[in-house]
Design brief:
six-stranded parallel sheet; about 30% helix; elongated; disordered C terminus; binds zinc ion
Length: about 250
């Protein structure tokens, strides 16, 4: 019996790598699948892994109808045993409903991969719907780390290197690339509307992402702003001096 599975995690936790591995494993068993993605870091119609793998995928747009998409393929003679849905947090609630129907009525396995919550710690609609409907939700084992070394559980958005907690839910950017020109372009493409992504002058602000532990997300301490604070918290270089001066 087909299943709807949701593999969730933060950014940078290896979701796309697992999506491609999953595709490989099923293919190796002679099964046939269709790969979907939305706003992948490598561009449209692609699933790319941080480890360097890249595989073509069908781009999901807001008006994509999975039921129609898969029916048409089957009508044209394609056999479909499973569907891989990467970046599923960007899918609409309706699209997740369609995927559930695909599982139940077409008997096709659907493997969804997505980030659970956005930079404001709110659930993405697509991920929320997947959590509500999935037969099984699996939190990914490859854990992303905060700069402090703890498990990263939250996504932070930075604009020109400064952490923000307001703005449009969906602005494409990337982790580990604070000066990524593509991210800057994406921010510019948001147009003249409101929000920090569109408020810059000239080139527009650079949007980046970083995974943090909850403590540092709440304190808004990113790797860039933290090292000095972190050093200030270290007692050794300071305490003896203070004691000495106290004696004098
Ligand atoms: Zn931390």
């Amino acid at each position: 019996m087909a299943e709807l599975l949701f593999f969730s995690g933060t950014m940078d936790c290896g979701k796309s790598t697992l999506a491609l591995q999953m595709d490989h494993n099923h293919k190796a068993r002679g099964r046939r699948g269709v790969l979907f993605s939305s706003h992948d870091r490598a561009g449209e119609s692609m699933i790319s892994s941080r480890l360097g793998l890249q595989v073509p995928a069908v781009e999901v747009f807001p008006d994509t109808d999975f039921w129609v998409e898969l029916t048409v393929r089957q009508t044209m003679g394609a056999r479909i045993d499973y569907v891989i849905c990467d970046e599923a947090q960007f899918y609409t609630v309706d699209q997740i409903d369609q995927l559930a129907r695909v599982v139940d009525e077409m008997d096709i396995d659907v493997f969804g991969f997505g980030i659970t919550s956005d930079f404001r710690t709110r659930l993405f609609p697509g991920s929320q719907r997947l959590i509500e409907l999935a037969d099984r939700v699996q939190v990914l084992q490859v854990e992303a780390l905060c700069w402090c070394g703890k498990r990263a559980t939250h996504n932070a958005r930075t604009v020109d290197g400064v952490m923000v907690v307001e703005g449009d839910q969906m602005v494409v950017g990337d982790v580990d690339q604070p000066l990524d020109p593509d991210a800057a372009t994406s921010a510019e493409e948001q147009g003249p509307g409101p929000g920090p992504a569109a408020s810059g002058e000239g080139r527009g602000p650079v949007v980046g992402y970083e995974t943090l532990c909850r403590r540092h997300h709440m304190r808004r301490q990113t790797a860039r702003t933290s090292p000095s604070l972190y050093l200030n918290e270290m007692p050794l270089p300071f305490e003896p001096k203070q004691r000495e001066s106290g004696r004098i």
